[in-house]
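hi! just following up on the protien thing from before. the input was this:
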Amino acid sequence: MSVRTIVKSIQDIMRQDVGVDGDAQRISQLCWMFFLKIIDDQDQELELTKDDYRSPIPTKYQWRAWAADPEGITGDALLAFVNGELFPALKGLVPTGKPGDRRRVVRDVFEDAYNYMKSGQLMRQVVNKINGVDFNDLKERQHFGEIYEQILADLQSAGNAGEYYTPRAVTAFMADRIDPRPGEILFDPACGTGGFLTCSINHMRKHYVKRPEDEQKLQGALRAVEKKQLPHMLCVTNMLLHGIEDPSFVRHDNTLARPYISYTQSDRVDIILTNPPFGGREEDGIESNFPAHFRTKETADLFLALIIRLLKPNGRAAVVLPDGTLFGEGVKTRLKEYLMEECNLHTIVRLPNSVFKPYASIGTNLLFFEKGTPTKDIWFFEHRVPEGQKAYSMTKPIRFEHLKTCIDWWGGPKRKDRKETPLAWKVTAEEVKARGYNLDIKNPHVVADEHGDPEELLAGLTAAEAETVRLRDELKAILAEALLR
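and the predicted 3d structure came back as:
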């Protein structure tokens, strides 16, 4: 049975369980069960390849001990074990603090996890299906990784859970343009399900990982934080799927909860790739962690202030931000001024409203900047929906190849060969300052639509309405005459 068929059959079984309500719960349930199978398969491989390796999970609670036997524990006994023993034991794991200790990873994943299933018989069926996937088989793991990506994409239709997922075409494009190297400290302060991390890992393995020490440098330089339980669990599982031995660098925390001034040189990073939550509001008191001139309840603004602080000199960042950040005033103006003074904001890629559909239909932008030198010029690039397509959608999402026009225009690593095109234009820092740091600059190569003379348009509208009334009355008369016959 193919991996795709296995996952579909698991979802079908879960739909029969009265305790699992909706996509978000189904995905959460799937995730903790797959997590235990993935980490157990990985443990068994590490036990063979590493001397003195011990699983972070006590023997009784390892997948192989209670789940691997298809004729094993089931029904009420299985439910009692999972709810009364397994979850309390994993939530209560005490990390040793030693490097490579994965107990904290397991504990953090289960910290707020929940077993939604109410039927032990259906749970046993799910467990037996999961046993059909061997995560030590590279082909099966890669195939499951593709399906896992689809599961994450399905979050877009699971209510607010969609906020955790950035289209993979966007994350892959940003990682490609930032071009991370093994050993460079790469940080996502609001990592969601780990899209930027996985795209960066894939990019480095494709272009730069040639020796085992390159892989060690890659894995040792990853940093991430996610404050919500479900995406944190999804991200950790994603890291295991991508061959990361110790995903404890994915912290279950709120990056903004720490005072701004407490982030010192030791916290600085080489690269930040992120899509900070926008449109949301942080809990009361979070803004007091920031200097008075940056205080706001708008989450994206707080993240932008922190991102600038966290970059090392010559560090580089790519950040997704809404249109509101570009034209906003007050704190937003001060932030943009600070950004352009501290960093070279060299590129803004403007995306159409439909990129993040269905859970958000607002204009978004990809800001690329480097710390250390003030901005002199900003290049804008307008990404358009492919010809013949009105908008992106769930069935026709943005794909990496759609962004190739921008990649071809980019102008190499130093961006020296850039030219103005119908989709690209340059604005000086002085022009932006004169506009009060309003970065919502439209494409000058697009001629505004000519809608005509207002009085003529109004007269035409009045005539059209009169014609509509005449036709309606004529139709009424025809119907009345027909009824009298």
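The CA atoms of residues 305 and 429 lie 19 Å apart.
The two ends are 68 Å apart (CA to CA).
cheers
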